[in-house]
Specification:
With 273 residues, the chain is of the alpha/beta class. It has one domain: 3-Layer(aba) Sandwich (Rossmann fold). 28% of the residues lie in helices and 20% in strands. It has helices at residues 56-64, 83-97, 116-127, 131-136, 165-172, 176-179, 210-221, 261-271, and strands at residues 2-8, 17-23, 36-42, 68-73, 104-114, 148-152, 196-201, 226-231. Strands 1-2-4-3-5-6-7-8 form an eight-stranded mixed β-sheet, with helices on both faces. α1 (56-64) links the parallel β3 (36-42) and β4. α2 packs across α3 (116-127). The longest helix has 15 residues, at 83-97. It is globular and about 55 Å long. The two termini are 27 Å apart.
């Protein structure tokens, strides 16, 4: 196994951040030349912190599913937009640059995010093709392109009727009034947005399901392929929804009915050409 912590240099455009790599090594006993899809994980935390529950446990589960996994420790408040976006785009480029070393298919790099990390993931999906952002870090859009998105109970909208307002305010700080429409991502989807897997719970009381539904509707309008799973019941922040990420004090978040999302996401990801 390849386990590595790597600092990403943002060239002064945003704070440097750490990328943690969990990758299966190759063996001549199986296939010395095998390359695997990669999944870059962006944990949630309202742009105020990064949840461990949505980081390493998810990466290890992805590794067991046959994907190379990476976790991005992106910046949180008081660091503001577009720093986090530049960090995730830099991480995508880093994975692509080291594809041979980490046995990654450079054309199969997905980004997965939860809650506010889902907002960051979706931001990569809608903004990668806008040359301005890639140019800030000295790259081209093709170098920072995510090939697929996986969004778990994502923050999407800045519309105050459905938004998780704290996430958007943490992301924007003093620029909230000027940029809140820019980061309302249902309005930024276009034909360049990658195929997307979404899952949410119907009664999420923190980030309303309308966030996922609005993004799905925008994907549909722009003829972008998507798979959407809405579970009937479950609180926000489920992660894997099992006892690996929750103890007895949070037994309500152990939801067997929701645990299959990662298996379905893996099947979906493998199905992409």
């Amino acid at each position: 196994m390849i386990y590595e912590k790597r600092t990403l240099n943002l060239k002064g455009q945003a704070p440097d951040v750490q990328l943690t790599v969990y990758a299966m090594d190759n063996s001549p006993e199986v296939d010395a030349q095998r390359v695997r899809p990669a999944v870059l994980v962006c944990p949630g935390g309202g742009y105020a912190f990064r949840s461990f529950r949505e980081a390493e446990p998810v990466a290890l589960r992805l590794l067991a599913q046959g994907f190379q996994a990476m976790v991005l420790d992106y910046s949180v408040a008081p660091i503001t937009f577009p720093a986090q976006l530049l960090q995730v785009l830099t991480a995508i480029h880093e994975i692509r640059t080291h594809a041979e070393e980490w046995h990654v298919n450079p054309d199969r790099i997905a980004v997965m995010g939860f809650s506010a990390g889902g907002h960051l993931t979706a931001s990569a999906g809608v903004f990668w093709s806008k040359p301005h952002y890639a140019q800030l870090i000295g790259l081209t859009p093709e170098q920072v392109k995510p090939n697929a998105l996986i969004l778990g109970y994502p923050v999407i909208s800045s519309d105050t009727t459905v938004s998780h307002g704290a996430s958007i305010r943490n992301l924007l700080g003093d620029t909230y009034d000027a940029l809140k429409d820019t980061v309302s991502l249902e309005h930024q989807v276009d034909e360049h947005t990658p195929p997307t897997f979404l899952w949410h719970t119907w009664n999420d009381a923190s980030v309303p399901v309308e966030n996922a539904l609005r993004f799905a509707s925008a994907l549909r309008a722009h003829k972008v392929n998507a798979e959407v799973h809405i579970y009937m019941d479950g609180p926000h922040g489920l992660s894997l929804a099992n006892d690996q990420v929750y103890g007895d004090q949070h037994a309500d978040s152990i939801r067997p009915a929701c645990q299959n999302w990662i298996d379905m996401a893996a099947i979906w990801l493998r199905s992409l050409a």
